[in-house]
Amino acid sequence: MRLLIVGTLKGQLTTATKIAMENGATVTHAEDNEQAMRVLRGGKGADLLLVDVALDIRDLVMRLEAEHIHAPIVACGITNDARAAVAAIHAGAKEYIPLPPEPELIAAVLAAVANDSRELVYRDEAMGRVIKLAQQIAGSDASVMITGESGTGKEVLARYVHTRSARAKRPFISINCAAIPEHLLESELFGHEKGAFTGAVARRIGKFEEATGGTLLLDEISEMDVRLQSKLLRAIQERVIDRVGGTKPVPVDIRIIATSNRNLADAVRDGTFREDLLFRLNVVNLKIPPLRDRPADILELAQHFVKKYADANGVPLRPISVDARQVLTANRWQGNVRELENTMHRAVLMAQGDEIGPDAIITPDGDRLDLAKTAPAVAHATFAAEQVTRALVGRTVADVERDLILETLKHCLGNRTHAANILGISIRTLRNKLNEYADGGIPIPPAGVPGEYPRMPAMG
User: Fold this and answer.
1) Are 240 and 191 a contacting pair, CB within 8 Å?
2) C or N: which end of the chain has fewer Cβ atoms within 10 Å?
3) Is the pLDDT of residue 380 over 60?
4) What is the DSSP letter of 320?
5) How far apart are CA 155 and CA 218, in angstroms?
6) pTM (2 decimals)?
């Protein structure tokens, strides 16, 4: 956890610094907005800015946005002035803390920002095997690829590996490759020199340099443009980076952890991901099973989230009833742990009486989870449609067309004429396509005898 304290309230901010450091934070100081920006550009970075309410918070927010620096701001002041607090929130601060600070309040803010409460909770043996492997490789500097569906907890596992490594006391820097536009991602990763492009008002240290000595998490790396992948490969291989607009390489010392919710082997075949980069990243693969495949974790996690959100909302801690447990274990949890967490947060707020019953286990729009299911036939069709769509996403039109042509040809036992009729193309077009595939080394079904092909099923 990295805290940047901005302001000149020396005595009071010294107290805040002491409390923060006692809670494991690394603290840096800046006297004003300009100095704060120099600190952030210089690579020290911050997970949270604690800012004197007397400063121009709106100006600081605008400066951060202009340079694409993402760090929440908590305002602080020596008086419990409601108007000052409201003005700070309107200016862009996330919270307001009166000074002198209460130790519990500072600790709570740091924990919320650092998200230290995201514990690795599991009971199922399927997840246990993944954790065991993570423990075995945590102490090394080997690159790690963490794969799994969205919401399974890939970033939580990445932090788990970092905290058990020799780099645990150094920075853990995360960047979501899918959330940053392609033209900005290179600068975010490698930094830039002043004037390198429009808007580059000063030198900016990128995530690679910011993470030096620690761990860099490349979240959803499958979304990175293939042109940027070559520069990433060089950085991993040679442990040097080139800032955008820079004239000399900069050495870095980091461990790389990457995550993906897609099959990168398929992406390699489709030409959207470099095979040599995959080999560099995939030294160890930690594959997290979906929540539906580790049923013992459902109730363990549900109970964990109930306690977490009961504490956070100041409501009584209620046990989960037997009927509610059955509802939870019967659900497929397509959104995995993230969906379960949101469901239990709602349950904590909606529960009445001594237990959390089925009536509190609801969907976001208020329907009971066990009554919101579609009819079996509709559900099956929806699931099948989703599977087909998912199989198409990320593939090129040419690849989909090729598979359709070859599968249709197989269905027709190799008969070119009948296959062309079903596909709605000319026999000449079909033959040209097949010759193209054959030249590429793809096996083509042999020509069949006219008339000897399966009957099409009657419609209606």
Assistant:
1) no
2) C
3) no
4) B
5) 10
6) 0.66
